[in-house]
Amino acid sequence: MLWPSVALFAVSLTLPALAQVGLGVDDDRGYMVLAMGWAGVLFGQFGWFANAYWAAGLVFLARRRWKAAAVTASLAVLVAADTFMLYRTGFPSDAGGSHAVKILAGFWVWWASLWVLAVGAIVRWRRHRRVDVGEGALSS
After folding, report:
1. Residue 11 phi/psi, 5° resolution?
2. Overall average pLDDT of the 25-33 stretch
3. DSSP 3-state assignment of 99?
4. Where are the alpha helices (DSSP H) in 39-139?
5. What are phi and psi of 20, to 5 degrees?
6. Are 114 and 70 in contact (CB under 8 A)?
7. Domain map of the chain by residue range?
8. Which of 67, 71, 75, 81 lies closest to 110, judged by CA?
9. What is the pLDDT of residues 71-84, one digit of tens each?
10. Partners of 18 in the beta sheet?
């Protein structure tokens, strides 16, 4: 599940991810959201930080630390869900209000990359636990 997740993540960078409705500005592509998303914390948006959990999940999965990979990848999915708050809050404007936001394909592909890693890590962790339990029963 490591490489499919990485591939989806890479594709998400090339796609439009967010649009500010009614402003006549270009949609923000995934690479721009990745580069500037940390600033979302200034208006209460924390979804970007899911990337750190996703990266940690990749490292844990590559090192065969299934439980740690499952936990961090699952946290990535949960933190990323904060992005849906944009439907409620929008992006702040210079005039003090906010602009409506539309979530586009790049976001959905990015979120899928997080889910693929989380599900893959959970499956590997569960398989590994079953093997350990089975071996323990045989050695008794």
Report:
1. -65, -40
2. 90
3. strand
4. 50-62, 66-80, 86-89, 105-139
5. -90, 115
6. no
7. 2-139
8. 81
9. 999 999 999 999 99
10. 28, 103
